[in-house]
Amino acid sequence: MTAIARALPDLFRVGFAGIVAYRAEMTIWILTATLPLIMLALWNAVAAEGPVAGFDQVEIARYFAATLLVRQLTSVWLVWEMNYEIRSGRLSQKLLKPMHPLIQYAVEMIVSVPFRSVILTPLLAALLLWRPELWKTPAPTAVALFVVSLALAWSINFLVQAVFASFSFWVDKTDGLFGVWFAAWSLLSGYIAPLDTFPDWARQILVLLPFHGMLGLPVEILGSFIAPGDALPQVGLQVFWVVVLATVLAVLWRAGIRRYGAFGA
Amino acid sequence: MVQVATALLRASLTLAMQYRSDFLIDMLTGVLRTLAAVAPIALVFSQRETILGWTAPEVTLVAGLYFLMQAALAGLVEPNLGEIVEAVRSGSLDFVLLKPADAQVLVSMRRVDPAHLWDLLAAVLLLGWSISAMEPPSLADVGAAAVLLCSGLAAMYGIWLLAICTSFYFVRVDNLRFLLWSITDAGRWPLQVFARWIQLVLVVVIPVAVITTFPALALRGTWSPSLLATGVAVGIAFLVGSRWAWRASLAFYTSASS
Question: Residue B54 pairs with which residues in a beta bridge?
Fold first, then answer.
């Protein structure tokens, strides 16, 4: 354990150097997440005649600006990475190192967060200069809760993708299967519309599903759409999903790695 | 040239049929993608009767046209993009250039992705529902819509070929197409939703509005000759421009051995 802790700073340095080496590619990836801006334009047009589901135009803009930020900071591309490494046998290199491969993957993904922040900060700063009314200072407790909720959202994203990627120990391609999950996620997480615009019965079900904890909840906390006190049980639900997914992943990984016969192994 | 095209189509369909297990997943993804496109429309119109003068069937019409474009582009054009990028990098484009047919036809039709037949089905469903729920369009409206649809297809093919051409000059452009797709996502909605300068971008730079909003305007009978002229001009410009860029890129190509 202490050996892992000692190796982590170097792992982070190497990972970040990797991100910087492919900076142009990474920047294009960041720019591809345009959907929050498109949905912002749409809902802005809807709210032009008066508030929708309690959101006026300023709140709509704040909601989708927060969505853009949270989407970037919780972004993970593990399914494609792991799929490729299992199929090509490159996973063997990770297995040789005295550290669990999933920790190595986690570091590889998390080092993109500082890079994303560097790209996003001027964009969001320009947005706030242009429309200062979007800024609403959250309470200190909300800020603390947002950081916790964001970290949990990242973890759920990572674990879900790891679970889907683990299927490739048994079948050839799992990115298609993940596409199904992704379509459901974009529909139900608050990515295309705030959950408040859904019918009430649907909203009550949706907040219980893992999708809300992957995006909607941190967005609502950051934009002050939910009071910290009301958000706390939801954060608890995020922890629940992290535990469930981690358990599923542990079982899948153990069974899968036994089946794994890499090239040359 | 038609013979070449049909032969290529048959070959790539045979290749795609080898992966039957993907069929079910493709179907499920197709259904969910359609739902993900329809759900925001349902959500928006549960709050409002119209947005900016567009009714629910009219907005669905735009979404249906987007699916049609997606089926054509992702099913017929896009599968080739990745291959050409790789062929340029490895030099195997030589084999294409040696064949006694126009290389642009060969690279544009080498592969077909039948997974996008689901997009076609979604397009037919959405278009069928929306047109039957709208005032029946006049013959002139339908004619204008058909012309705009064709020039929109030509324009979108053109921008994709231009994206292919960049691979002759830069090595890693495989994620450029994801950027292109994410921008065309804006075409799912009526153009009026966006700010003026974005509208201009969506007509002239990434001309997705020509294939979605323009034919929809024609079918709802709110088009003008200048709209028709703009659409046709954009289509021709992209077709001619991309052909020219393709020629220039081929001249730049130095093959693997040189």
Answer: B51
Size of interface A-B (CB pairs under 8 A): 90
Residue at A31: amino acid letter? L
Chain A nearest-CA residue for B183:
A34
Q: Which of A26, A34, A80, A191 to mutate to probe the B interface, most B CBs <10 Å?
A: A34
Tell me the one-letter amino acid at B179. L
Measured CA distances, A128 to A45, A117, A160, A220 (Å) = 20, 16, 33, 18
B62, containing H or E segment: helix B56-72
d(CA B76, CA B111): 7
CB atoms within 10 A of CB B196: 7
Is A57's pLDDT higher than 70?
Answer: yes
Nearest to B68 by CA among B158, B159, B152, B10: B152
- Predicted complex: ipTM over 0.90: no
CA dist., res. A254 & res. A242, Å (int): 18
Q: What is the 3-state secondary structure (H, E, C) of B72-130?
A: HHHHHHHHHHHHHHHHHHHCCHHHHHHCCCCHHHHHHCCCCCHHHHHHHHHHHHHHHHH
Measure B2 CA to nearest chain A CA, in Å. 33
Kindly state the tokens that stand for A7: 């190796």
Partners of residue A46 in chain B, C-beta under 8 Å:
44, 47-48, 51
CB contact under 8 A, B44 and A183: no
Backbone angles phi, psi at A22, to 5 degrees: -105, 45
User: Which residues in chain B have their CB less than 8 angstroms from residue A35's CB?
Assistant: 182, 185
Test mutation, A23, A32, A200, chain B, max B CBs within 10 A = A32
The rounded distance, in Å, linking the Cα atoms of B139 and B158 is 29
Q: How far is CA B87 from the centre of its chain?
A: 23
The model's pTM is 0.87
Residue with tokens 């927060």: A66
Nearest to A176 among B22, B46, B176 (CB): B22
Q: For A73-82, write each residue's pLDDT tens digit.
A: 999 999 998 9
Considering only CB atoms, A41 lies closest to which of B36, B43, B194, namely: B194
Match 């997440």 to its residue by tokens: A33
Strand, coil or helix: B161: helix
Q: At what angle do helices A78-88 and A175-188 cross, to 10 degrees?
A: 170
Burial B169-181 (b: 16+ CB within 10 A, else e): eeeebeebbebbe
Residues of chain B with Cβ-Cβ distance to A29 below 8 Å are 175, 178
Per-residue pLDDT for A34 more than 90? no
pLDDT at B189 over 50: yes
Contact between residue B198 and residue B70 where contact means Cβ atoms under 8 Å apart: no
Q: How far apart are CA A136 and CA B65, in angstroms?
A: 39
| Alpha helix positions (H), chain A | 2-21, 23-31, 35-46, 57-73, 78-88, 91-96, 101-110, 112-130, 140-166, 175-188, 200-206, 210-214, 216-222, 228-259
